[in-house]
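Hey team,

Sharing the Plastocyanin-like domain-containing protein run so nobody has to redo it. Sequence (583 residues) first:
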Amino acid sequence: MGFVLCRKTMTRVMLLLIVTMTWFVAGDAGGTKPEERLFNIEKLEMFVDKLPHIPTLHGFHIVNGVLKPKSLQIGMFFKKWKFHRDLPATLVFAYGVSKHKATVPGPTIEAVYGVSTYVTWRNHLPSSHILPWDPTISPAIAKRGGIPTVVHLHGGIHEPSSDGNADSWFTAGFKETGTKWTKPTYHYVNRQQPGNMWYHDHAAGLTRVNLLAGLLGAYILRHSSVEKPLNLPTGRKFDRPLIVFDRSFRKDGSIYMNATGNNPTIHPQWQPEYFGDAIVVNGKAWPRLTVCRRKYRFRIINASNARFFRFFFSNGLDFIVIGSDSAYLAKPVSTKSVLLAPSEIIDVVVDFSKSTTKTAILANNAPYPYPSGDPVTDENSKVMKFIIKHKSETDTSSIPTKLVQYPRTDVSKSVRTRYIAMFEYVSSADEPTHLYINGLPYNAPVTETPKIGTSEVWEVINLTEDNHPLHIHLGLFKVLEQTALVETEKFTDCMTEKNDAVKCQISKYARGNKTAVTAHERGWKNVFKMMPGHVTKILVRFSYVHSNESYSFDATQEPGYVYHCHILDHEDNMMMRPFAMVK
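Structure output:
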């Protein structure tokens, strides 16, 4: 017993040392409160920086007119980045082929259907993090120093060893690796439906700080024979990713993140959500873009840690939605606003020839935390500005009446129903301490084992007060219905005690008002917003949705896959579960 007590004491001392070092590195050691050193965002003039063009990397070779697989070397570098003309340069972590060319966001990788892309991800980061992190939420920790990283291609359908498992992390030079690390070079087979993805860090317990530091970028999969007949806007000028996220800064330009948790005696640093004051698009705070009076295609990615965006145009322009997450819709949907949770992607066409004004502000009015948090401020209610040229321009692109038709889904052919319950736990002070799925932490044994080539119905039960964007690796899903719970407190008490939806008679409680699925969210998704106090029924497909064919790789291999809330602060604090595919 004495040995155990001694070991616990030593562990506690080591954790305190780590936290102290972390605060020092983050610049919060000393007598000055970090809030007193925050940059006054109100002093930054909006729309002074042009919207940057993100560099492009092709994930293929062209040899004698034939497309061939290509190997890329992409590093993670420690460098300075200018987020705004009047803000001092910021220390960031950035993806790129070299330190000089590394950017925030990282380069957009463009791949082609059926042509493999190989990427060796290399960690060139320093020994200590630039942001505070919490050692009590089971993060990846390198014993010999260094920052653990691993890359997940969000929306990608590929082998488990290339999926970027949270425990497949590695440090600089692969000196240390996680328990599920497999290989340095990832193989993206690119045999799924064409669409939009994004790559980002996925290291256990560090995802929120590694993304906040800048480790994210877009990935586009093209399929000429499918997309060319659609005649949508194309080309570098008229087809652009917009990667949106929020950040706060100190007076010296460094990224601000809290150094003290909401339950410091439990978690010294962790807080349930991160929200920044400045809205950044393609690496610039509140940028501007001059556009012609014609149609543009924007692939909008919400790369925030926790902020939801409800986008709309100040002059009433429409979004014509053509895709959601990594898949095209069956037909375009016109809407005045789009709600995007963290990690969701919306693919839209905007026709500026319809504008009655010379400028248009892309705006936001989503409360934070969503849906019942604070109203937006003047700073976070504005995203970017479009300056619209007076003269019309020839536009040969069009918006088709139909887009991409996928094989029909049949719920009656699903092989089983699973219940996925979301729990939040609080301290005696009613402050969140951690979040579980099905009452289990991330490192508990696998409980979901879907069969390759099948469909399953998942009934996702949100017992919390937050909207949780659920992301499923590998599988795509369609949202079937959203039903409010009745007598929620009684049902939650039963679930807390028994953790069994059937024994708690879920059918007795899932009979409240139904909320229709928004028209542009009825296609194939890999993330969806799980409403608080609701049961959201989804149909998950574990095969290629464009062909219903089985995967072109062995999906049963280690280290398997995961599903999780994509509010990064929740994901990092246990709101993630593994699943293993079986044949």
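The chain is about 10% helix and 35% strand.

Ping me if you want the raw files.
A.
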